Amino acid sequence: MSALEALKAELRVVARLRSTASLLHWDQETHMPSGAGAARADQIALIESLTHERLVGDGVRRPLAELVDLDSGKPDPALDEETARLVHEIWRDYHQAAALPADFVEDYARLTARAQQVWAQSRKDNDFNAFAPYLEKIVAMKHREVEYLGKKETAYDTLLDQFEPGMTSAEVTRLFDSVKRRLVPLIQAIRDAGVDTRQEILKQSYPKDKQWQFGLQVLKDMGYDLDRGRQDVSAHPFTIDMHPTDVRITTRIDEHDFLSGFSSTVHEGGHGLYEQGLDPEWYGTPFGQAISYGIHESQSRLWENLVGLSKPFWRHYYPRLQALFPENLQTVDLDTFYRAINTVKPSLIRVDADEATYNLHIMLRFEIEKKVINDGLPVRELPELWNRKMEEYLGVRPDSDANGVLQDVHWSFGGFGYFPTYALGNLYNVPIMNQARKEIEDLEEKIASGNLLELREWLRNRLHRLGRRKTASELIQDLTGSPLSAEPFMEYLETKYREIYGI
Ligand code: ZN
Hints:
This protein is mostly helical.
């Protein structure tokens, strides 16, 4: 067997271990009895330490050493361009994993598995103090992780790079600033317009089973393959992949909030399509993996916002929705419904935010995370800082920590550096969609006639199948012919909301 074949075979073993841990996580969030928390944390920690051991073991190191220089990651000059790219990306993963001592990996996995359970309870009890000691330990471990991995421009940059390879906080700041310059006046103008978008239409009683049925139909139309995936209910919707043939999504359904369940379903469906679209032949290798968290998020948000909140989409689906909920919607016309689902209104909870104010939720988290990681802000001061920033950015003050600093799961699994990728997803998805419109003839009309498959095919061929053959910035440059900028996203928002709000 060649070194490359041996390497790929060993990486498939690593991926199988990793997918086993994923399955344990999926079960923890969907069906696990609540009393099993501590035992589950031990199981996950064990599998994750075995995964790490195998990834940094001889089975990977030996063949990899034949293909790249292990210190610099420089590929053997005899390799063709594609193989050189592949082994460099493998080296990147290997190098980062090898920098972390085995006991650190195991301790971290156990701590964060437990912390997620503690966070869920703290949020339920509105008790930040119960979660704070865990968060303090996590922050301390993040600092050790930065030391092991090597500090980039700032400690935060090292963490950000884990989620969005190649991205820096300086670049994120530049992008966010140019969003903010146009977004803040837009939101102000929307507020001043004083238009009643009749959101109450969406808050009537929508029986859960019918919402489920509608969401599932949209998923099928999007091309989400239910023979290679499934949908369940969880408190916080997520997508988890075991293999391109087993990609599971979850949603949540609120009888009195139609948009919440619909958006979650389509959002996670977008993530699911990306994972189902990866090339199984490259399973376990970087060419069988998503480019970055930001690109992943671009796929969920493209479906959720650019498709699922668009007029063409509802031209097809609204009559069907009316037929399903005649007592709620019979007398509501399409334009009224369209305005209701596109209401812009500053609110407390990120996951319920509209596509315009959403970005402000991310900006404040980005600022707070940098303070914790770079400036040593004590964890105990987080609730107060959070509330102050909410007033500054969104003009609303949380009524409780449960609706404030405790609302997101991310810090409990150590995901510092994760949040910016959500807003980056918004910035990536508009130029991607603009390009799809250029390359797919009459895309809007196709969507308006319920044909979503052509868009999925285009995304699959132009993006999903690539795996990590390109970085996020290379992808955007190659696909659209321009580097990433905030302008397409702001153009999109301004055009859409000027029309809706008559400003
Ligand atoms: Zn997402």
